[in-house]
Every structure is written in C-alpha cells, then in structure tokens.
C-alpha cells in the first residue's frame, strides 16, 4: 500500500522544494507603501538636505559674474575674381602648360571660406591676435566689469594693472605671465566661429565680462582674418608672378608664352582685387553690437537644478540608510 501511494503521488517528495521559491519571491518584492512610509518618516532629513543645496545654489548663482556675448553675421565674399580665371586656364591649357614644367592644378581648389575659418581657429592666429591687440590681461586676469566708467577690474593675485605687471605664482615651466599656449586654451573657449551648412553664412561670437570688449574683439577678428587672408594671397600671387616671368624667359614657344602671359595677368588681377577690397574673405551682413543683456549665467536655472539635486540626494540618503539598517 505504501508503495502504491508513492506511485500515485510521485511529486509529493518534491513539494517542500516547490513551495520554497515562492516565499523568496514574495520576500524580494518591493513594497511601494513601505518606500513611501520610509520617505515620509525621513521627510525632515530630505527637507534639510534640499534646503542646504538650495541655499548653496543661490549663493553660487549670485557669485557668478555676468557674461556678455557679441556676435556678427558674415557672408563669404565672392572669390571668383581671385581664382576663377586660373581655374578656367587650367581646364583649357593645362596640357600645354605642363610642357613648360608648370602645373596649373585642378579646377576645384580649396574653399577660401573654410580655410579662413580654420585659420581663425588656429593657435598661430590666436597668438598673433592676442599679442597684436595686447589683450592678454583682459583675457586671463579680468575679474569684474564696472558699468559706471566702463573699466575692467583685475584679479590682484594675478595682475597689477597700475604697474602693468603679472603677479601670479607659477611653477616651472610656467611663468608669472601666461604663455600663448595657456592663453589659447582660454581664447578658444570664449571665441566661436561657426558656418551654417544650409546658407553658408558665418557667425563670429565672443563672450566676455565686458560687452564693450566683446564687441571690439569681434570687429578686430573680422578685420584681422580679412587682412591675413589678403596678405597670404598677395604674397602667393607675387611669388607666382616671379616664377612665371622666369619661365617666360626660358621658352621660345609662342603658344606657351601666350599661356604664361595670361597666367601673369590672372595673378595681377588677384593682387589688384586684394588691394581694392577691405572685406576680402568675409562681408559683414549684421555687425557686432554692444549687448545690453547678459548671455549667462542662467541664475534661475542654476537654482532650480540645485534644488532638484538636493531633493534627489535627500531621498537616496533616507532610503539607503533604511535598507542598511534593515539588513543589519
């Protein structure tokens, strides 16, 4: 009989093992009512932590100086006069010119606008810009803009404006006066050059404590990049002209000499075009203005985020403390 009962109930010996996991699952389930109860019991701790973060965020937001932004909208200047003639000659007489040992290149060339943007982002351009306009102190040591008399105050531990002397303490290889590498890091953060993909328009913007300084730097940037690109093209055209004239003296083939004279003529057009045009690479569509409103900091947003962070940390602290005590 016992054997028959065992055969009729083959799973009876496994019943204790079958019911045990169900109990573990129930114990592992999170009771939302328990969580809300824990949070409610620790509400004063949460309020205290949130209050501390709120006060800290308010103090931090108030202590941040106003930053003003000035920007200008530019349009790429028409460069057909500078390169269109050479491209046409390259397509027509490239074979004959190669016989004289001259490579006219392809018709594509390099986009002058993109090159100008990359030049403005380069370390060399930034270093020359800072040194030319003597703005190192305004860039690295400015602390506050005085609206009443439109002057800048400097950090006394970094720069003495009266003696025009750097006072900062620096360990080798650094010196009291910031290097151009240090200045470039700061310069690249406050100066932005962006080109719109759809329209091709270029925006140059500068952020600074002083809206007057920000506007002045934008104007200087536009003037300097036009001057730099102009000088590069003129120097290249002069060098090319000298090379072409030497090739003219070396050949007696009439057709090749005719091509070389046309190339010299195109280089002369490039020089003339550069000399008579101040806005060589970029034309100003919307000039930079002295901003009347600050660009940052967003003090209200800082306070809201600080309060939310304090509330979340307060809730996490209460829950973690409860579960640690519960396990103990």
Detailed description of the structure:
The protein has 328 residues and is α+β, with helices and mostly antiparallel strands. The chain folds into two domains: 66 residues, no CATH class; 219 residues, no CATH class. The strands form three sheets. It has a four-stranded antiparallel sheet. A hairpin with a 6-residue loop joins β6 and β7. α4 packs antiparallel against α12, α7 packs across α9 and α10 runs antiparallel to α11. It is elongated, with a radius of gyration of 36 Å. The N terminus is likely disordered. Pfam families: GNVR, Wzz.
List keywords for this structure.
328 residues; alpha+beta; four-stranded antiparallel β-sheet; two-stranded antiparallel sheet; 61% helix; 12% strand; elongated; disordered N terminus; LPS biosynthesis protein; GNVR; Bact_polysacc_biosynth/exp
């Amino acid at each position: 009989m016992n054997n028959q009962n065992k055969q009729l109930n083959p799973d009876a010996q496994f019943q204790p093992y079958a019911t045990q996991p169900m109990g573990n699952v129930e114990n592992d389930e999170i009771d939302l009512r328990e969580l809300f109860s824990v949070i409610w019991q620790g509400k004063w701790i949460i309020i205290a932590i949130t209050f501390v973060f709120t006060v800290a965020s308010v103090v931090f937001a108030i202590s941040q100086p106003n930053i003003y932004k000035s920007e200008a909208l530019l349009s790429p200047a028409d460069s057909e006069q500078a390169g269109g003639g050479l491209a046409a000659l390259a397509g027509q007489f490239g074979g004959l010119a190669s016989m004289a040992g001259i490579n006219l290149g392809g018709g594509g060339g390099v986009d002058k606008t993109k090159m100008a943007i990359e030049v403005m982002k380069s370390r060399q351009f930034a270093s020359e810009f800072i040194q030319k306009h003597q703005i190192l102190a305004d860039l690295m040591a400015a602390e506050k803009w005085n609206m009443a008399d439109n002057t800048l105050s400097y950090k006394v531990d970094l720069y003495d404006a009266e003696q025009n002397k750097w006072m900062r303490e620096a360990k080798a290889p650094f010196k009291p006066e910031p290097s151009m590498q240090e200045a470039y890091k700061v310069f690249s953060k406050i100066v932005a050059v962006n080109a719109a993909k759809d329209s091709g328009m270029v925006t140059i913007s500068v952020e600074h404590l002083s809206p007057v300084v920000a506007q002045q730097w934008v104007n200087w940037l536009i003037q300097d990049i036009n001057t730099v690109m102009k000088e590069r093209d003129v120097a290249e055209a002069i060098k090319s002209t000298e090379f072409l004239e030497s090739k003219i003296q070396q050949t007696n083939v009439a057709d090749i000499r005719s091509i070389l004279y046309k190339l010299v003529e195109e280089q002369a057009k490039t020089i003339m075009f550069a000399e008579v045009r101040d806005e060589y690479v970029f034309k100003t569509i919307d000039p930079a203005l002295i901003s009347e409103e600050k660009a940052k900091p967003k003090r209200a947003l800082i306070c809201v985020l600080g309060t939310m962070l304090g509330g979340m940390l307060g809730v996490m602290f209460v829950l973690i403390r409860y579960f640690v005590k519960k396990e103990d």
